């Protein structure tokens, strides 16, 4: 068994992390729909007038700054569909489908790398999906070889090379192979350990599968393990999820992501297989969240923000303490100031001052690359206001506080005038105890940390023109 969590390493804001102020009426009043701010502006602001040429120009501009690179590779294949899933995926047992996809990925790498100074270090690598472990061991090796040939991968100790793993189709040999390829961080999908819940979401996964992989990963010396859980799934109760959490705490992962299930069957077809009557009520979901925060903070985890928890000695918690935490399309990241290159169907890049997204259709993705061009179908070049507000929202989401005076100095603006409407809009949240204002310094209270998306929304200049129905509930 992995060792239990040690006592929390003290740091100055630990009380703010562990204290739980729980005003249910207030939380419910502010529990509206809103963005998760994995980017600002959000993907709803992307438009199809943004072309592959715009993206290649951004790649070339980015060489002037010499920022390190972060590579995200989307592997869309899954052997079975989990009914809750809202990811871009293709359900198939035919592993032969991966070969032509890997070939297209290589073409995309070649087309991208020709515009980049590939001496820039690749500090981060993340394989997501779908299920990256759908690939055979040989295919994984091939993909790493291609990435290394096109971009130059690193074996530096501080690299952050992560892969999402389905414990139902990985074993100790998989982990040993991934380690040999240079991966040093794993994210294991668990969602819930309750058999009734697992059956309802079409994901039967006994605890022993997860436990065996975690023991081997610890033995092999993987630097950080993350477990994904979801609350709000069918048949979950406060008591049943507390039982799952107790077992997870025993497993002692370095990080936990506890996502709020957003039931949106009109947008995500697999969710239509979930019976809405089996979902926990809004009251039960809040109780589950409350218990989750209480149990994890009592076990020594830091509530990073939103749905992320980490042990005090994990790089996420350390990055938050030193102000270098970043938020991107994979959630929170400890490596700030990287240009993110997204590879594969549906992948999004964040390079220089643009976002660029590939098509969500595999056929459209393949067709573009077969014609010898990048598959960019939409994106956005940020203007000065977007860049300023992105800075504010990202720091607020990562640090749970924002110094607008420092923002003013950084961007050479009069912050008092620039954000006067925002500060007026936040007055109600301040009066309700979600934030404390000291001049131009705003700090989220423990309750405000739970509702940080709401506070960030005040700075979002694009939000008034977007439909709230496209976003999930905050909690």
UniProtKB/TrEMBL annotation:
The protein's required cofactors: [4Fe-4S] cluster
Residues given in the record as S-adenosyl-L-methionine 1 binding sites: 72, 129, 164, 348
GO cellular component: cytoplasm
Catalytic activity: coproporphyrinogen III + 2 S-adenosyl-L-methionine = protoporphyrinogen IX + 2 5'-deoxyadenosine + 2 L-methionine + 2 CO2
A Gene Ontology biological process term: protoporphyrinogen IX biosynthetic process
PROSITE patterns linked: RADICAL_SAM
Pathway assignment: Porphyrin-containing compound metabolism; protoporphyrin-IX biosynthesis; protoporphyrinogen-IX from coproporphyrinogen-III (AdoMet route): step 1/1
Main location class: cytoplasm
Residues that hold S-adenosyl-L-methionine 2 according to the record: 84-86, 130-131, 191, 203, 228, 262
Cellular compartments annotated: Cytoplasm
A molecular function (GO) term: coproporphyrinogen dehydrogenase activity
Domain Radical SAM core: 63-299
Cofactor note: Binds 1 [4Fe-4S] cluster. The cluster is coordinated with 3 cysteines and an exchangeable S-adenosyl-L-methionine.
Keywords, in A-Z order: 4Fe-4S, Cytoplasm, Iron, Iron-sulfur, Metal-binding, Oxidoreductase, Porphyrin biosynthesis, S-adenosyl-L-methionine
InterPro entries xrefs: Aldolase_TIM, Coprogen_oxidase_HemN, Coproporphyrinogen-III_oxidase, Elp3/MiaA/NifB-like_rSAM, HemN_C, rSAM, rSAM_sf
Residues reported in the UniProt entry to bind [4Fe-4S] cluster: 78, 82, 85
Family annotation (Gene3D superfamilies): 1.10.10.920, Aldolase class I (3.20.20.70)
EC id: 1.3.98.3
Family the entry assigns: Belongs to the anaerobic coproporphyrinogen-III oxidase family.
Subunit structure: Monomer.
Protein name, per record: Coproporphyrinogen-III oxidase
UniProt organism field: Vreelandella nigrificans
